[in-house]
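fwd from M.: "can u put these together and see what the complex looks like"

so here's what she sent:
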Amino acid sequence: MSNWLIYRGEGDPDPDRIGDLPPPPPWRAFTGEPIGLPVPGPDSSTKRRLGGRPLLPVQDEDAIQLINAALYLRRPLLVTGEPGSGKSTLAHAVAQELGLGRVLQWSVVSRTELKQGLYEYDAIGRLQDAQLSRERGAGEGDIGEYIKLGPLGTALLPSERPRVLLIDELDKSDIDLPNDLLNVLEEGEFRIPELERTAKREGHAPVTVLDDDGRSVPVVDGKVRCRAFPFVVMTSNGERDFPRPLLRRCIRLNLEPPRDERLAALVYAHFGEGAHEANRDLLESFSRGDDEGLRPTDELLNAIFLTQHTAREAGSRRDGIARLLMRPLEQHPQQR
Ligand SMILES: Nc1ncnc2c1ncn2[C@@H]1O[C@H](COP(=O)(O)OP(=O)(O)OP(=O)(O)O)[C@@H](O)[C@H]1O
Ligand SMILES: [Mg+2]
């Protein structure tokens, strides 16, 4: 295996390997002052998605090269592919193998605006508290208590190791979001005008705000500027095209749904040793169905899980259950 690869898709976590990542190209170097924040450990969603066992080393070489290109070039990775091809899970796989901790997740819907990803300011809560404090003759709370960074805002905090940020289903956004996002990802920084105003009035002491991990973090002069550019995975089911300026700034990866050895590796990751052999019939019939239409991986995983339970019964309907569950997405269970 060529040794320029930082992420190898081998599954076994190696948190030291990210230290071998060379400095960025000069046009992607960022200079945020580090604030000494430790990276929070992975949460349960990574284990749930990856199955808790290291993935067997089955390569999809193009995908692995493109993931590394995004890491080296400090560019977001735009991942397209059919539903269930593993787009969202890819962010978790990289975080787990490289020891990059909890994946920051921003799920996009049509109403999502850039600001929600960056930070939220609870102006009404602040007003109410100020009124209560006045009535009690107490002083006003600090403005930082009313500001919470979103997943994108947190990913851009100046950390020494890159955070992993999943911007999920970007193609569901309204037309402006991809363009707005473009500027922030290009500059690696953003401003919080509410804090900039305070800094002008009250001096340049850091203000403590909450981040997406629930930690208190300092922000100076209302500016957040990244240091290690985050590993950003943006996923799309291809429901619409993105503006070319965004495409130009991303590394683009189209994921094929896992088949054969890679599918067997996923079965191992979720069900352990021996599961592949024990369910060879299901794996084969799942792969045979490819000509009938799209079958997402989840259908196979669900079928294996259920047939493990039905197998305990005499005269079990293993085949029947599997046939009901493993169907092309467009087909209803009643259709034959
Ligand atoms: N590296 C992996 N290790 C273990 N399981 C995986 C891996 N990649 C994908 N899977 C499993 O495959 C299934 C589909 O993956 P995922 O949800 O990431 O697909 P997706 O492309 O994001 O789908 P959608 O477009 O519907 O959101 C999940 O059940 C996930 O647990
Ligand atoms: Mg997904």
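replying to her w this: The chain has a mean pLDDT of 89.
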